[in-house]
């Protein structure tokens, strides 16, 4: 449990906790940071133990070596939940 004091207003709640599911995609892609073909992994992140969580799970595909996102070099690239 953490407390935050904002000028007389005290907000109590659990800190942000994340659950990460890390699975192999099974395919190699070009990593622009490593400058090599690398294995990329699908990572799903979601907040847990929050009664009023406003954010759903979010997915990303990251390099298994340098952990850069597959959309880092292409601004505007994003993935919606359920996109593979």
Kindly estimate the percentage of residues that lie in beta strands according to DSSP.
over 45%
User: Termini separation (Å)?
Assistant: 36 Å
Radius of gyration: 17 Å
Q: What is the ordering of alpha helices and beta strands?
A: EEEEE
Instruction: Report the average pLDDT across residues.
Output: 68
Regions with pLDDT < 50 over 5+ consecutive residues? none
The gross shape turns out to be elongated
Helix-and-strand structural type: mainly beta
The count of helical stretches stands at 0
Q: What portion of residues is helical?
A: under 10%
* Lateral arrangement of strands in the main beta sheet: 3-4-5
Number of strands: 5
Number of structural domains: 1
Polypeptide structure, described:
- This protein is an all-beta fold and about 80 residues long.
- It has one domain.
- The protein contains no helices and five strands.
- The protein has strands at about 1-5, 10-15, 20-30, 35-45, 60-65.
- The strands form two sheets. A three-stranded antiparallel sheet has the order 3-4-5, with no helix packed on it.
- A hairpin with a 4-residue loop joins strand 3 and strand 4.
- The model has no long low-confidence stretch (mean pLDDT about 70).
